[in-house]
Design goal:
ten-stranded mixed β-sheet, Endonuclease, Chain A, nine-stranded mixed β-sheet, 16 helices, about 20% strand, globular, alpha+beta, 21 strands
């Protein structure tokens, strides 16, 4: 019965799209990617504040250290929080830090804000909500738990579609972990697999107050249009807010758009003013006294050599910034430039596929082999999902061969015994360069879901610093080392056999996983 309900999402009506005007590249400026700041705030920082992590264990230990050291704010956005011992240890760390904050009279109260997805966070009897309720009960004034519910899951569809399958309609998919002025950007969720043997990507931005403020405001904005978890495990909207699935859908999406765009635009204005002020104060004719004063107070920062651009994608709200920037990067990549693109779930949008096949740069695309796919060995219909990905991969590879692009566009499959693969993002190497100058890191998978259904956020990190470029290069190399190149013989292996029913159903449901 539930197998046929997989088709129920096809009944949901499309949301009207608010299209942003196309952006044009701006050749002048500190670097060639400065055009991105026409869409989002630009944060200039020192490369010494950026640290690239490589393993789930390192990520988990850093989370605990950062929680314990937090004094003013902890902001965590994830798809869900798991229910195992490792996740409970994180919650215990939060409890200890909140307890310390209450006892320290001279320091400001610590605020904890957690944003999760409603459907994924409510799955099962023991779930993200039940793990967090004790924290809410113990610290009601300091802790906020927001559960985002997609406006597209409503009415008859919401009544008919069962648990787990309801997650196909749309999710809160942003992964962001913030502690005072330190920000971790990742594709990893707060679950034991992501702390042990599910490979992802992780970047720490240290001592970056403006970036931390921006992401705090972003999570607050999404939290304001989300259901608020109560101490008795009920949920309710903030007073005066339109309900995501009971209220008017158009009105809800409009308010959500306004709240998120307000955060983006106000931060962009702030950063432009800061940039103008810094530029003028660095001119030869500017006041030496003001410069000496700032030097004396120790507030003079080193010249930025790295720029951070937050890229937001929330198509249900008509926000398509990440899609626009990604498409422009792929379009403008020059001949002999190299793009290393990775996704845990290879299901590219038609637009991204057309750009990869129709442009001039070299592509090395890293994806999960069936055995390291997160759905491998799953029960029921979900167990066929790795086969569906194999089918999609085979179709794309056949298109590459048909266009005789095998040299320029190469597929590689990640394979590692006992591990699953969840890394996503890209590294851009300019023509003639052995090191990347740009990376995208965050939650999007470059698929239909990421572009059209879910709430996503990543950052573009642009750097001129060789040491940071080397860090990013090593990260890329380490991931690609555990991979093998895809060829025609790959799909002749027995484990690549795709059943006829999977081939027939995949085109109907590929937009939902």
């Amino acid at each position: 019965r539930s197998s046929w309900l997989l088709l129920a999402p096809l009944l949901t009506p499309p949301v009207p799209v608010i299209t942003a005007p196309p952006c044009s590249l701006c050749p002048e400026g500190a670097h060639r990617f400065q055009w991105i700041r026409n869409l989002v705030p630009e944060f200039g920082i020192s490369s010494s504040h950026v640290k690239v992590l490589s393993s789930p264990t390192e990520f988990y230990e850093l989370l605990k250290v950062q929680i314990k050291a937090a004094k003013q704010r902890v902001v965590m956005a994830s798809l869900y929080l798991g229910t195992g011992l490792l996740e409970q240890e994180l919650v215990n760390c939060l409890e200890e830090t909140l307890e310390k904050s209450l006892q320290a009279k001279d320091s400001p109260d610590l605020r904890v804000s957690i944003l999760l997805d409603y459907t994924r966070g409510s799955r099962g009897r023991k779930n993200s909500r039940t793990v967090l309720i004790p924290l809410l009960q113990r610290f009601p004034e300091q802790v906020r738990v927001s559960l985002f519910h997609t406006p597209n899951l409503r009415g008859l569809l919401r009544l008919l579609i069962p648990e787990r399958f309801n997650e196909t309609i749309g999710l809160q998919h942003i992964k962001l972990y913030l502690f005072d002025d330190n920000v971790i950007l990742s594709g990893a969720n707060l679950s034991d697999l992501y702390f042990t043997n599910r490979q992802d990507r992780y970047v720490l931005l240290q001592d970056s107050p403006e970036i931390a403020d921006f992401f705090t405001e972003l999570v607050d904005a999404i939290g304001d249009v989300s259901l608020q978890l109560q101490q008795d495990d009920t949920v309710q909207m903030m007073e005066g807010m339109v309900h995501p699935y009971q209220g008017d859908k158009v009105a809800y999406c409009k308010i959500a758009n306004q709240r998120v765009m307000e955060v983006i635009n106000s931060a962009r204005t702030r950063q432009e003013l800061l940039h103008a002020k810094t530029f003028h104060s660095s001119q030869p004719g500017s006041s030496l006294l003001s410069q000496q004063g700032s030097q004396a107070s120790g507030s003079l920062k080193p010249e930025p050599d790295t720029w951070i651009y937050p890229l937001i994608q929330m198509k249900p709200f008509g926000i398509q910034i990440d899609e626009m920037v990604t498409e422009t990067l792929l379009t403008e990549a020059e001949r002999d430039a190299r793009i290393f693109l990775t996704t845990g779930y290879f299901n590219l949008t038609q637009a991204y596929m057309d750009l990869i096949l129709g442009t001039r740069a070299e592509y090395r695309i890293l994806l999960a082999s069936p055995e390291v796919n997160g759905f491998f060995g799953a029960k029921g219909v979900a167990g066929a999902i790795p086969a569906a990905y194999v089918y999609i991969e085979h179709q794309f590879y056949s298109e590459v061969c048909y266009l005789q692009q095998q040299e320029r566009v190469q597929l590689q499959e990640y394979s590692r015994a006992g591990w699953t693969f969840h890394a996503k993002g890209l590294w851009l190497y300019l023509a003639g360069s052995d090191l990347p100058c740009l990376t995208l890191i965050g939650s999007p998978n470059f698929g239909y879901r990421s572009v059209h259904r879910d709430l996503e956020a990543q950052v573009a990190i642009v750097t001129e610093n060789k040491a940071l470029q080397q860090q990013l290069h090593q990260e890329q190399e380490q991931l690609y080392l555990s991979s093998g190149v895809v060829s025609t013989s790959t799909f002749e292996q027995p484990n690549r056999y795709v059943k006829l029913w999977v081939k027939l159903v995949t085109p109907l449901i590929k937009n939902f996983f």
